[in-house]
Amino acid sequence: MRLKLQDLTRQFGKKTAVDAVTVDIAPGQMVGVIGRSGAGKSTLLRMINRLADPTSGSIHFGDVEVSSLRGSALRHWRRDCAMIFQQFNLVPRLDVMTNVLLGRLDHRSTLASILNLFTREERLLAIAALERLGIEQTALQPAGTLSGGQQQRVAIARALMQRPKMLLADEPIASLDPLNAKIVMDSLRDINRNEGITVLTNLHTLDTARTYCERIIGMSQGRVVFDGTPDELTADAVHQIYGVGDASTFDEGMTSTSITVPQPTAEHTGIHPSSGVRSLATV
Ligand SMILES: Nc1ncnc2c1ncn2[C@@H]1O[C@H](COP(=O)(O)OP(=O)(O)OP(=O)(O)O)[C@@H](O)[C@H]1O
Ligand SMILES: [Mg+2]
User: Fold this and answer.
1) Ligand 1 contact, 39 CB (< 6 A)
2) 38: Cβ below 6 Å to ligand 1?
3) pLDDT tens-digit map of 208-255
4) What CATH number labels 3-281?
């Protein structure tokens, strides 16, 4: 089923965070959304998942009008489009296995949930999801004791437990070092290719979007200013998206944390102090 956003707009007071965005995403695409800080990337994703409501415009998934869903239909939609976040959003004191099983909550009766009765089938599914992400050995550890990269993989396993039709990711690697960033992006690509699940991910580094996404959407001040393949993303287009400097001198490296060449200083922060879009965008 296609995801269609039509003139999607969100205002916060006088600020237009997302401005008349019209986008049509075919099933199974891997799409990266890029843009400087404040461009509206998170707000766009949050509206699709209905964590934020549009001010105007519409969201359709197949024949369903997502923007008007309420009650159980809205819960089903949230299950269908699983979301992962920069800060993982796990329950740190609960073990990994339980965190992954929490992805099943919406599939279950309230009573079974209250009694914490996960079925044998659900447990097997959880183990399979952890194996899929290569972290089954951590199943009994409290989630908070894992490395950032491992925690993000737990979050992806939890998302898979929802049997989603779409995976939304809001800067999934922004808190990770280059090696873990690569593992997480490889996992998302693997899920996209093997399960055919649409992946829509905000990314703050251009090189990651180029490497992993077949389609890149560039946002600036709430608007889509680029929508095309990595090949079509020319220096001029990059300049339009990030809106700084001169197109001829714009250094793409400024938006890069390169996940192929680990830098020692990036080991713990995941973002080299002088090279992230964050620092670029705050100048
Ligand atoms: N809850 C809110 N209340 C008021 N303004 C908001 C709210 N959420 C977002 N905004 C504003 O909307 C604009 C877009 O914010 P958004 O978080 O979507 O940008 P972003 O592209 O995700 O940025 P970043 O790269 O920093 O995550 C910003 O100007 C932000 O200040
Ligand atoms: Mg954001």
Assistant:
1) yes
2) yes
3) 999 999 999 999 999 999 999 999 999 999 999 998 644 444 555 555
4) 3.40.50.300
